[in-house]
Design goal:
By secondary structure, this protein is of the alpha/beta class. The chain contains 21 helices and 37 strands. The strands form ten sheets. A six-stranded parallel β-sheet has the order 34-31-30-35-36-37, with helices on both faces. Strands 2, 9, 10, 12 and 13 form a five-stranded mixed β-sheet that branches. A five-stranded antiparallel β-sheet has the order 3-11-8-14-6. β36, α20 and β37 form a beta-alpha-beta unit. The longest helix has 24 residues.
């Protein structure tokens, strides 16, 4: 095929005819694996010549040749030419051709890559009719980026266009036949042909309902670093080559954008060197209903409006969003939601997110205007600046009044100026780069490399833990997807033990992928496992950035809440002594910094009229008497900045943590009750009552047994927060409260049980239970009441 004016082809069509909707090809970096169906990639890969196909040449011991490519004998009339290809503004694919008796070969000369539109052969497809085999299948066609110095031998029947420049002038080495050259050059103007071995079609003649296009390749190759001005294969003598042993500033600028350079952060995690920080990032996206977007059935993208793919994405925001919220809330996991600003015009979505922000402490980040219309690709610096500022302002006006400080560019359409523009707009956490598993900084290129608080912290948004990549691109099942997340985190945890810094990984979630029922079901199991690990910390992007800037993992091991919880946002007093009357002591004095409040099992199933407890014949009013004094105590503890821990008794949804003994005693655990399945996590009955609802910053421990230490990480929490004294409230006195207090006593933790903040269905049991605690000189604890503790807290704060 000659380089005749393909871009002029469409001029033959009347300008009065409306342009059909666009169908953009997927753009990918060519590899041996993804080009197998269309040709043979020519690279310098050592394995490109298979050992079994080697041809030894006696004259040259240093040379190995591979077997001849199938269909590459060139009909005994090979024609070898060189072509120069300039950049073209028109990204339409106007012409496609195929050859059935021979193939063509293209090699990119020098360092400049090229774009090759290649479609799988259709002539032997058994699923097509005879007529359909005469035309290409757009769904089996891609825009391949082939690096400079590499090339491809296309297979018989492969549909292809002439190579396209990706910006710089492209020189190609072309091998085909004289027959094809003669056929192409004999035409006075472009037109379809079926001459000899050259069958050429005009795309608009075949598909009048769609315009085939390839994406702008420049952002893609820029991100891959394929246009680096430092030549990868310099022909200069080694002594004259530039030293590339360490990244140069120009390399960093090319990788991360103009005006910025990468800096490594200090030992921000030296106190948590054995940990992995996991950041769930939920993409809440808006799509233009008349534009193309991610597809569950890509072939349906040929027609617009198209209800299946559009509805699939809408379903994510209608159902998947709330489903993921419930999943994360069940495991007390924080979330950064990166949101399309167009969604501020969709009240049912915006209102949900605002509630999640207020009730669960979700961080709201920015994800551009929408995930249609090409994102930021091709925008001028001023256009992109306006787009970024508008997005941040719109989200800030709806979600709390402050503009988001976390950003993910839609569709990874990062330009050379994106990072610097975001820096100018006050963005602090950037999720656009995937080339590490530790955070790093971006600073102005003129700044000192020792800058300790970079204006922008890049948090790796790993493709290996992205639901879109794993489920839609790689085709993993929901179970395989969830298992991949677990394996990734556990491997990083192993590596972190030998490092002076923790690893960081984002779980990239989409409402229409991770929010599907099967995905949530499998994620629930994996999150439960990861959530119980003491060396895994869950955080928002904003929290990672704050930890990096402060030079350590949020707090030291001596005073931090481990992976099972977020750090408390409430101030803790730096000194002070809590003095109170606690039987059998006349006056008890304890260090305020080492006191925590624990509220045991104030749950709907146990305490709400008409609930499970009452259905068993119990009088729940006896338990509810403890609510009012506990409310007063909780308010005072929050004001004093105590660490506050809530517990809930309950079981996994599959009841795999329910012992045979507990299940076999006539228990109805797991059966349907007034507030969902009884004592099952995630059900309404399992929740803590509204009167004592935990704040987002407070710790919630889910326990499968009666004691709060059994099969939980409560012991780790207390050690890492330095707590050695617990103020104990909860129900029931003789069962879960008693069991927890006894377990704590064996671990060297003092328990002060508040008589009026604990209760039993049976008043006599409560009375005896309280007496047993303080008997014999306080055999396993002391007893006080809400009023005494509240007075003590107030006095301690006043003395500081």
């Amino acid at each position: 095929m000659d380089e005749s004016s393909n871009e002029m082809a469409e001029e033959k069509k009347s300008e009065d005819i409306p342009t059909p909707p666009d169908h953009f090809l997927e753009i990918v970096l060519a590899t041996k694996e993804n080009t197998e169906s269309v040709g043979w990639l020519i690279t310098d890969d050592e394995e490109v010549i298979k050992k079994e196909e080697e041809i030894g040449i006696p004259f040259y011991s240093t040379v190995s040749e591979g077997a001849n490519f199938t269909h590459a004998d060139w009909k005994d009339q090979a024609c070898v030419r060189q072509a120069r290809i300039e950049w073209r503004d028109d990204n339409r694919v106007s012409w496609l051709e195929r050859h059935m008796e021979m193939t063509q070969g293209f090699i990119c000369v020098g360092e400049t890559p090229g774009l090759f539109v290649l479609g799988e052969p259709t002539h032997e497809r058994v699923d097509l009719t005879d007529d359909q085999r005469q035309f290409p299948d757009f769904e089996k066609m891609k825009a391949y980026i082939i690096p400079g110095g590499c090339g491809i031998i296309i297979k018989k029947g492969t549909w292809h266009d002439f190579p396209v420049s990706v910006g710089p002038t492209l020189t190609t080495f072309i091998v085909n036949t004289k027959e094809v050259i003669d056929a192409l050059t004999s035409m006075e103007e472009p037109a379809p042909m079926n001459f000899g071995d050259c069958y050429k079609i005009r795309c608009s003649d075949v598909y009048d309902d769609v315009t085939l296009r390839f994406p702008d390749p420049r952002p893609f190759i820029e991100k891959l670093g394929l246009t680096d001005t430092v030549k990868r294969r310099s022909i200069k003598p080694k002594s004259e080559r530039a030293d590339t042993s360490s990244p140069s500033v120009s390399k960093e600028v090319k990788t991360y954008g103009n005006r910025v350079k990468r800096v490594e952060v200090g030992n921000w995690g030296r106190d948590r060197s054995d940990s992995v920080w996991v950041v769930p990032v939920l993409n809440v996206e808006s799509f233009d209903p008349d534009a193309y977007g991610p597809s569950v059935q890509p072939h349906l993208n040929k027609v617009q409006p198209e209800v299946a793919n559009r509805g699939w994405r809408d379903y994510g925001n209608k159902r998947g969003l709330s489903r993921i919220r419930s999943l994360l809330r069940r495991h007390q996991i924080p979330c950064t939601a990166v949101v399309s600003s167009d969604l501020v015009d969709v009240p049912e979505v915006a209102n949900q997110l605002r509630n999640f922000q207020e009730e669960d402490g979700w961080e709201i980040g920015a994800h551009g205007a929408n995930n249609s219309n090409g994102g930021h690709a091709g925008l001028s610096a001023e256009e992109e600046r306006t787009k970024i500022a508008t997005c941040l302002d719109r989200l800030g006006a709806v979600f709390g009044g402050n503009n988001p400080t976390t950003w993910l560019t839609p569709g990874f359409s990062v330009t050379k100026q994106t990072a610097s523009l975001l820096m100018d707009e006050g963005v602090e956490s950037l999720l656009d780069f995937v080339d590490d598993d530790a955070p790093f900084g971006l600073i102005d290129e003129n700044s000192d490399n020792t800058f300790v608080e970079p204006p922008v912290v890049c948090i790796p948004y790993s493709m290996e833990t992205n639901d879109f990549s794993l489920v839609l691109t790689r085709g993993l099942s929901p179970r395989e997807y969830a298992a991949a997340l677990e394996s990734h985190v556990l491997q990083l945890a192993d590596e972190a033990r030998d490092s002076d810094k923790p690893r960081v990984v984002c779980f990239g979630l989409h409402t229409f992928v991770a929010g599907a029922p099967a995905s949530v079901y499998e994620l629930d199991k994996v999150l439960a496992k990861l959530r119980s690990a003491s060396n895994i910390k869950w955080a928002t992007a904003k929290e990672v950035t704050a930890a990096v800037r402060h030079g350590k993992g949020g707090a030291s091991r001596e005073a931090s809440i481990p992976a099972i919880s977020r750090e408390s946002a409430l101030p803790r007093p730096s000194k002070g002594v809590l003095r109170l009357k606690a039987e059998p002591c006349e006056t008890l004095e304890v260090n305020m910094n080492r006191v925590g409040l624990i509220l045991i099992d104030f749950q709907v199933d146990f305490m709400v009229p008409g609930g499970f407890g009452e259905q068993l014949g119990n009088d729940v009013s006896t338990l509810r008497r403890a609510i009012e004094p506990t409310q007063r105590l909780l308010a005072a503890a929050r004001k004093a900045g105590l660490t506050i821990i809530h517990t809930r008794e309950g079981h996994r949804r599959d009841l795999s943590d329910l012992t045979a003994l507990k299940a076999g005693d006539g228990s109805t655990i797991g059966s349907k009750g007034p507030y969902g399945r009884i004592l099952v996590r995630g059900e309404a009955g399992h929740d803590i009552i509204a009167e004592l609802k935990p704040l987002e910053s407070e710790i919630v421990v889910d326990k499968p047994g009666k004691g709060a230490f059994y099969q939980t990480d409560l012991d780790v929490i207390l050690k890492n927060t330095g707590i050695d004294t617990l103020l104990v409230c909860g129900v029931t006195t003789e069962v879960c409260v008693h069991t927890t207090v006894r377990e704590a006593n064996d671990r060297g933790i003092r328990c002060i049980v508040l008589e009026d903040c604990t209760a039993s269905y049976f008043p006599e049991f409560h009375k005896v239970g309280i007496s047993m605690i303080s008997a014999q000189g306080g055999i396993f604890g002391q007893v006080s009441n809400a009023a005494s503790v509240i007075d003590g807290l107030n006095n301690a704060m006043q003395s500081v």
